[in-house]
Each structure stands twice: as structure tokens, then as C-alpha cells.
């Protein structure tokens, strides 16, 4: 396998020889100032490589030689804490003084400690009852930021002819705006009920949970004329695991431990555009 080592800062040359030795690789080639590719690496040495990389704040990935971005046809992303840096529901809750309470539920759900995502979302949204809907616009304009590397990644995959899907257990208010802003092909999320300019504390229609995310991935692949094995999926929380399991390549992005353990690749330090250095 190829072993791709990445750093959020220019990669120090002093790391290369130890990593070749740990991976039992043959030689290394620079990808760019932030990454190096080690050829003939032994995946059985993953534990040693992971320990070294964790110590030095590096990301690593074992990649099949010859794999190309054009071997895939769809990039799928979760929204909150993946495509963007925030959890929208937590920031909305801040406008009614309940951010800490809602955030605690969000964290537990994303770690997989709350098994029923529908119930956890319903409970969090109920706390927003009566909030002026203008809070959503404030969150979008003042607090929502794209994760590092997002625009670089999307420009590259779109130039390669790939399609894009944003699927979220969050809200259409944000996914619809991001879809338009970033020229994404597909988006799906939950719809907050708003009556007379106020949130009612309810979600309209089917809640987008783990199984709905996986179903949405399959439908987007079908619409794109590809099998799910040609999809790349980014996620960070336990409700992303089902769709990540169906993908040809799953990427845990600054994710909870349960997600990092299940993913093909984990980016703990580099941006979303770290994907481009794997190929």
C-alpha cells in the first residue's frame, strides 16, 4: 500500500525516515510541502504508524496504489462539524440561553451514547419553542463557517466531474443555503416548523437519522448512475456510520472516537482538502 502522511503545517523532513522504517516502506516521495507518500508500506504496521502520528499531530492513510479521484463519482458530506465548523442547533439554542444544555445532548448523540437520534433531536428542537426565526439567519450569517479546505476540495471534485451530496441531521434552512452557495448537486436535512415567525419546537416530516442518511446516499448514487462503492463519505458522528459503511471510501473528519475507529481514513488535523493528497 501507499502510506500518505499529512500535516497541517509544512511537514518536517525529520519525520520521513522514522515513518519509512515504522511502515516498512521502500521510499518516500513528496506530494507537496504538507504531505509525503511512502511506497510499499505494510498495513500490518498501522498501530506503530498511528502512535507516531498521534504523538506528532500528523494524519496518515493507507491507500491502494494507482487509486484516482476519478475512480469515484460522488462526494457526500455531513454538515455540522464536518462541512462547517459549528453545530447549528447548539448555536440556535444560544439565542434562547440554552446552548450548554442542547450542546450536551448533541455531544452525547454524536458519540453514540444516545441510541435514538430521533428522540434526541426532538428533545433538542422542543427547547427552541417560541424562539424568533430570525435567529436562524443570525447563525448563518454570523457564526457559520466552512471547515478548512472545504472550498478547495469542492472545486477539485467538481472539476473532476464528481457530484456532491450534503446530508444532515440538521436543518434545511442551512443546507439549502449551502447547496446554493457551493453549487452542490443534492442536499437533504430536517425542516423546522415556523409559524408566525416563531419556531414551534417541532420538526416537519421524516427525521433524517442514520438510516435516512444511508438511504439518501443510495438514492444520490442511483441518480448519478454509480454504485455506492464509488462514493466517498465524510462524517463525524455516530449517525454518519451507516452511510459511511456503504461508501467505497469513508473519511472521519475531526470525528468522535467511534467514527474514527470505523472509518477507512481519519483526518484529525488537516482540512477537508486532505482527501486530494491521497490519490
Automatic annotation (TrEMBL):
Biological process (GO), any one: L-serine biosynthetic process
EC number: 3.1.3.3
SUPFAM superfamilies in alphabetical order: HAD-like (SSF56784)
Pfam families on file: DUF4072, HAD
Cofactor: Mg(2+)
Pathway: Amino-acid biosynthesis; L-serine biosynthesis; L-serine from 3-phospho-D-glycerate: step 3/3
Domain spans labelled DUF4072: 3-49
UniProt keyword annotations, A-Z: Amino-acid biosynthesis, Hydrolase, Magnesium, Metal-binding, Serine biosynthesis
Molecular-function GO term, any one: L-phosphoserine phosphatase activity
Cellular component terms per the entry's GO annotation: cytoplasm
Catalysed reactions, semicolon-separated: O-phospho-L-serine + H2O = L-serine + phosphate; O-phospho-D-serine + H2O = D-serine + phosphate
Family: Belongs to the HAD-like hydrolase superfamily. SerB family.
Protein name: Phosphoserine phosphatase
Originating organism: Trinickia symbiotica
Origin organism lineage: Bacteria, Pseudomonadati, Pseudomonadota, Betaproteobacteria, Burkholderiales
